[in-house]
Amino acid sequence: MTDYDILSSIINTVDTQKDTINKSMSEMNEWINNYNETITTFGLYSFYYDNENNKCYEKVIDKYKYTVCPLKDVKQDYTSLGSFDKWDNTTRSISYTQGKTCFGGLDRSATVHFECGIKDEILSVNEMSKCVYDIVFKTPNECFN
Ligand code: MAN
């Protein structure tokens, strides 16, 4: 083997590896683009649907334990504050309706607002008007927007 042969064999190997790396990089970019598109178009709905469908989060605030199951419902102890209604991509929130009927005839309802945070957790719950609840939920999923 001449020096030339050795050199061209090295160059060939490097070229092949470069092709392989470029190919996996373009696959990775495609995956990232799809992921970003899914998150911006369908928001947390798709994320929770794929990954967190069965997870619920709890927090005790004042005298009640609040439970948020993002794709299912929201509870104040055993009282339903509403069931999943819809995801709003503009306000980055999910509304929950038709909770347990409140004194006076109104059904309880809730809105969960998703904000960027280092882990998935309920941050706060406020009863905006009687039996209408506003919940702030922190999640890393909201940090990509
Ligand atoms: C319970 C809770 C309160 C709500 C009252 C209405 O005490 O669900 O949040 O204001 O009922 O009667």
List keywords for this structure.
145 residues, alpha+beta, binds alpha-D-mannopyranose
Describe the protein in words.
The protein is of the alpha+beta class and 145 residues long. Helices cover 33% and strands 38% of the residues. The chain has helices spanning 3-42, 44-51; strands at residues 57-61, 64-69, 73-76, 79-88, 93-97, 109-116, 121-129, 132-139. The protein has an 8-stranded mixed beta sheet, with no helix packed on it. Strand 1 (57-61) and strand 2 (64-69) form a beta hairpin. The longest helix is centred in the N-terminal third of the chain and has 40 residues, at 3-42. The model has no long low-confidence stretch (mean pLDDT 87).
Largest sheet: 8 strands, mixed
Strand order of the largest sheet: 1-2-3-4-5-6-8-7
User: What bound compounds does this protein have?
Assistant: alpha-D-mannopyranose
Give the terminus-to-terminus CA distance: 56 Å
Counted by DSSP, the helix tally is: 2
The Cα radius of gyration reads 24 Å
Q: Helical percent range?
A: 25-40%
Would you identify the regions where 5 or more consecutive residues have pLDDT less than 50?
none
Percent of residues in β-strands = 35-45%
Overall form:
rod-shaped
Mean pLDDT: 87
Question: How many β-strand stretches?
Answer: 8
Order of helices and strands: HHEEEEEEEE
**Class by SSE composition:** alpha+beta
